């Protein structure tokens, strides 16, 4: 009925005055309802009072709630009367709470939130391993493992590959996961639209595909009729049978193998030759769900046992050496995804937490200083009967109001800041796209508000509510007693100590990062452009067409004016992942026990000159190192040194495989400088280069691993690489207009990106350290300034009695430096203890690096000195006559 | 002399004087009778009806069978004997003022 009445009023006013009337009616209805509610409540109370049935008086809880509300209103009024103070505090809190919340959103998304699968804590990644190297499963190894892995409820294999997606404009390269049909069942997630592919689809070799939600939106605008339509992957039509739900990502970033989230899922479709490929193709990842009651440790032990016994039973005789050393393990998926990011994120969180604590200490001092001015008022209240609890509550109400305002603004800031973090974070950070505000974040901010309110307000509240009869005496001066001064000093020293810890952390990370960037990667990265291409099997069926394309491309691009060298390789520096077992025709005794595995690349054109890898002995490959000539190889210095010592390896022979069974011998024709195969802080391993033109027809045409048909082109120019990009693309388009080009980046960008995580960490922590130093300096300066204004009369008297201004300035500075000393005395040992946490993030620098510690000490002292400057200058302006007249 | 009634209370009692009505009907009745000059907004209307019920001047009754419920359970009210007496007293008080206005030739007889 009430609703009908409201509707009637709205309609009536709209008839009367149109839209203005409707707006008026809305406002009037809201006001009317609120007032009526208040009055009805008053009526209710009156009714109870005048009822002839005795109603007990309001419960104590009601009295408390009324009083708390009173306190809050009073606090809000008081804060309104001190706008500068309130704004400064709210701004500081907004900044620090916002920053803390923003970092927590990252921690939440990457470390705390459950993965988007059913019961993700029961998922494990199963791996095989050679000594010193983790691998995936080869197809026959997986099939054998699957048959005997009864301790898993469900198991699936998957493998990433990049495909050309065409039929859409413009064609793009997409990541496709080839997976067993059991993948969706293992993860416990069904497509939101359509169906998953089945075992029958897999065994029959059907070309069906399930899309990610993002790809469905990009290419089909979320049209449900996409089911049943074809998409072209490497120019082969696949029928879409399903679309995964929004928010589903697989695989996750984090694990070492197959770690790029896919846009399309297709059946893994092991071919007959793959099923027989013992001893190679260890590139399938395996994910499994633990059976109820099975612990991860049990599964790990069982996996190891099954892998070893399978290898011994099934590997052909010539691979028995491999079978002996093969191992296996099962690790929790959550650990693999977030494990590597854990330290970085918790360090960042601790850093921003310190900044918040320092800010709270600053605000606590401010509030204590402000509250001291109210000593008399509080003494009166106390004398009139307000209990200590009541006084504490009143004083806490102010900090509560400030904290609430600060945290509301801080939450708004956190939304913006977390977007900035996502934009600047290294793209290898797992679950980056899941970072956002959710219920847990809001809960966190609420808890932070309460903690901040307490931290800022409890000290002044406890201090001021202590019994103090003297304040009421006639003429009692309101000033900070001995105890308050000590508290101020302790707060400032605590701030300085925390700032020291952050400064040490930031300093260590910055030095580590600069050491990292000073590492010589082994090649010359300036003015080199790189691109990635991949030739689809549909259009390039045989070895001849693949060879033809790349040979023509390298020739064409060499003709471009401004280009000094062009080459191509299966992998680029800082990203060489391929490892192969080898054997030597003649071997030093000392080298026999070294692991016989090398990094390997197939190169063509003038690759070494394009990338800038220097020749140390022998020669580079030439055009004559082709299919009909003797197989050759080039090795790096580390390989030469480890296996031949100071002897010249040029002329020696090497073959893939092991002593018992190996491929054709290749003659070493040159030794080149060492190049980092992985991250800048990784160790350089022995490396072999072989000519791409000497690869067998079968390998060249292979479309399963497809290594030889997906080359990375490197172009060294005399001009900036950006200027060349357009021309090179045009040359590629001229040869094959439908071929998409991906990963166009300069070598410098690749180097820079490889250091993304250390850079990010160093910047973040340094930012926090700088902020902490600023806040601590403000704390010092503020405290000294307050102390001086309180002591003005005393200073005036001293000056009148003959004290030099110099002496008084020295006094101020001594006070400040004593605080700095106290801060260092607590901060440096704390940093000493805590810096161990950073050990895993540091490169070539000890967590207890003395230079860093000494520098931090000097910086803090210098900043404190500067913070003393303004109060010291004020002292020099004191006019003793004016001060004494006031007394 | 009894205390004067609040003007909107008087109008509500007047609306209910000759028949039982629900809240919306009271609102419309008052609006029409006062020529749009007195608009009872729902919150205050129901609060007033509550106060009148406390003072036993009106009483809430069961809706009659077949009462159309457009938007919620309709709440019907009926004036009590005390309510009629209070309304009549107020009407007489106001009539007294009208008489004075007539004597002073402000109103035609």
Describe this entry's structure for a reader.
The complex is a heterodimer of chains A (887) and B (109). Helices cover 53% and strands 15% of the residues of chain A. By secondary structure, chain A is α+β, with helices and mostly antiparallel strands. In chain A, a hairpin with a 2-residue loop joins strand 1 (123-130) and strand 2 (133-135). In chain A, helix 11 (333-372) packs parallel to helix 14 and helix 15 (482-517) packs across helix 25 (850-876). Chain B has one domain: Orthogonal Bundle (Arc Repressor Mutant, subunit A). Chain B contains 4 helices and 3 strands; from the N terminus they run H-E-H-H-E-E-H. Chain B has helices at 7-16, 23-33, 42-54, 81-103; strands spanning 21-22, 58-61, 76-79. In chain B, strands 1-3-2 form a 3-stranded antiparallel β-sheet. The mean pLDDT of chain B is 88. The chains are: A alpha+beta (887), B mainly alpha (109). Chains A and B meet through helix 1 of A and helix 2 and helix 3 of B.
Mean pLDDT of chain A, nearest integer?
87
Q: CATH superfamily of chain B, please? A: Winged helix-like DNA-binding domain superfamily/Winged helix DNA-binding domain
Radius of gyration of chain B: 16 Å
CATH class of chain B: Mainly Alpha
Oligomer: heterodimer
Walk across the major sheet of chain B and give the strand order.
1-3-2
Helix content of chain B: 40-55%
Indicate how many domains the architecture of chain A comprises.
4
CATH topology of chain B: Arc Repressor Mutant, subunit A
If helices are DSSP runs of H or I spanning 4 or more residues, what is the number of helices of chain B? Answer: 4
Structural class call of chain B reads mainly alpha
Q: Counting H and I runs of at least 4 residues, what is the number of helices of chain A? A: 26
What about the largest sheet of chain B?
3 strands, antiparallel
Structural class computed from helices and strand pairing of chain A: alpha+beta
Report how far the terminal alpha carbons of chain A are from each other.
Answer: 73 Å
